[in-house]
Write a structure and sequence with these properties.
globular; 8-stranded mixed β-sheet; alpha+beta; 394 residues; 8 strands
């Protein structure tokens, strides 16, 4: 892994330009990424060299210290070329953001060794059980969907702390070295094949106090890490904005599908009657619908990010209404994009079945991405409805 301890981070626009410059290469390597079932080393090294993985890392350890929105914009850009790369990118980059919320001893332990350290995760609390012991916890469990685990050196794992009577006293996130856990190759998937989202397992693994954080501490806009990292990003409510991390690559895939579909059908002719495909009104409407869906989704996501940042910059804490609304917005935006890509795929016809056609890959990738629990409209829509109607949380 490179040691880019002296990275130079220019303007936001330049960081986005670096992401744009990667898209054509990602598109060319997309089949290789799928077949290899993980992100190629060349791509990971390119992300390192461009500083894109460290855009939300605290400035005090040499990171970019940029805003949350920039990380999502980069993700959307990368997703135009390769959905798997965008998915893994945002999973890795967001953990610099999350680690910046950690107790400072934990931050310095990881970044003191390697400022480029990559952290994967499976923050699924019921999958892990932890017992409190002297100086820390004993963690056991098996966690699915650990995206990017192949290139990571550390893993964030969710767990429920239980007392001797097996009563849960709270949820925590534990940061452990990858060599101390088992990686189980379960990822044989229909989409997002290159994410390598394998299972991981641990048995009575000791985790020191400073390498764990209470889930509640990441939600209430006053994290332990904010004492040394003053950027408002490190007080953003993690759960309130987590769905945006999942929505961002989905929006990028939709934009990529829209671009690829439009480019192909400017010149395509029907197989059976040689008519110009672009002349069909149904195709024109599909293009318009997809472009509008992508733009609407982006505007919604960016508005949430801007609002969250402005709230904290004003000295206020984010409200429960905001957190619920942001989760609703992200799920709705992602589903809007999924519907658009499904329409493009159906309109592609028989050519869409070929593996060389990027439309089918975007469609398969987005179909898997939208199945994430935070994107389920049945779940998140109902969550907002319960809040709006005064019923209370489920």
């Amino acid at each position: 892994m490179p040691q880019n301890n002296t990275l130079i981070f220019p303007s936001r626009d330049e960081m986005l330009t670096r992401a744009v410059d990667m898209v054509s290469n990602l598109r060319e390597r997309a089949i290789e990424t799928e077949d290899g079932r993980q992100i190629p080393d060349f791509t990971i090294n390119e992300l390192h060299d461009n500083g894109l993985l460290r855009v939300t890392q605290p400035k005090r350890v040499g990171g970019g210290d940029f805003d949350y929105r920039l990380m999502l914009e980069i993700t959307m850009t990368l997703g135009q070329g390769c959905g798997s790369t965008a998915w893994v990118y945002v999973n890795l980059a967001c953990h610099h953001w999350m680690l910046g919320m950690w107790p400072v001893e934990g931050q310095d332990f990881v970044w003191g060794e390697d400022k480029d350290a990559l952290i994967a995760s499976s923050v699924i609390y019921p999958a892990g059980k932890a017992q409190e012991v002297d100086g820390g916890y004993r963690l056991s469990g098996r966690w699915p969907f650990c995206s990017g685990v192949d290139c990571a050196g550390w893993i964030m794992l969710g767990g429920r702390v239980e007392n001797s009577a097996q009563e849960t006293s709270g949820n925590r996130v534990f940061l452990v070295r990858k060599p101390n856990i088992d990686v189980i190759d379960t990822w044989q998937a229909s989409g997002l094949c290159g994410t390598g989202s394998k299972d991981v397992a641990a048995d009575a693994l000791f985790v020191p106090d400073y390498m764990t954080i209470a889930a509640e501490d990441m939600q209430n806009c006053n994290t332990p890490g904010s004492a040394v990292n003053p950027n408002p990003i490190f007080n953003l409510p993690q759960a309130g904005l987590f769905p945006h991390i999942i929505a961002a690559p989905i929006i990028g895939m939709a934009e990529g599908a829209c671009d690829d579909f439009t480019t192909a059908n400017k010149v395509a002719r029907s197989t059976y009657n040689t008519s110009r495909v672009a002349d069909y009104q149904a195709v024109q409407i599909k293009v318009a619908s997809a472009a509008a869906a992508v733009r609407s989704a982006k505007l919604s996501i960016f508005a949430d990010c801007n609002e969250a940042t402005a709230t904290l910059e004003s000295g206020e804490s984010c409200t429960e209404e905001q957190k619920h609304r942001w989760r609703r917005d992200a799920a709705y935006a992602a589903n809007l994009c999924y519907d658009a890509v499904e329409g493009l795929y159906k309109a592609t016809g028989g050519r869409g079945a070929y593996k060389t056609n990027p439309i089918q890959r975007h469609y398969r990738d987005i179909s898997v991405g939208i199945s994430h629990i935070s994107m389920s409209w049945d779940v998140i829509g109902a969550e907002w409805g319960r809040y709006a109607l005064g019923i209370g949380p489920n």
